[in-house]
# Entry
Amino acid sequence: GRRIVTIEDPVENKLPGVVQIAVKPEIGLTFAQGLRSVLRGDPNVIMVGEMRDLETAEIAIRSALTGHLVFSTLHTNDAISGVTRLVDMGVEPFLVSSSVRAFVAQRLVRRLCPDCRESRPGDPESLRRLGITVTSETRMFAPKGCSSCRGIGYRGRLAIFEICVVTPELQELIARGAGAAELKQQANKDGFVSMRNYGLEKALGGETTIEEVLSATLMESASTASLIPTATPVIAG
# Structure
């Protein structure tokens, strides 16, 4: 079977069949040192809790280039910014383009209570400004509150995602050091769906509200991009 190893800070959940290592900087066991040690055991899959520095990022990427499937996280505003974040850390663009397979970003929004949510017609002008095609069947949903949700109108949380797959076209742009705007333009051509648009689909389906989605995806506005960091998992191998 596959040998799966994780390096975490701290280990929050025990996973059966997975070797989990907690970093301990006070004794020299950092993410980078842990990753070096793990590679000696020739694992199939490696999960590095966070790439905090160039040393960890370079080891993780070189691990991917030698045939390991590597998962990790880093802090960016969105999925596509994962490319520029790695380059800003000091990773060579050609290494990023040849090793990373996809960037995934996610946020949590409150889920509407299915027992009491209210459906109402949407304001056509507001919806059009969000890029939503309005028809006679387009509905918006709002919280109401009942005994099931303790009067809040929401029950639980819902994840909204965006996934940027590194296509051959994106690989070429990354390798020559293209900026975030050019990368996003190419990703859109490749079928990239932004977190906001994915969330709006969920809102129109009654799973959450448009207000929740807009609040969680403020980073799509250039004026607020630097204010809302999010963790972006990196999938390489």
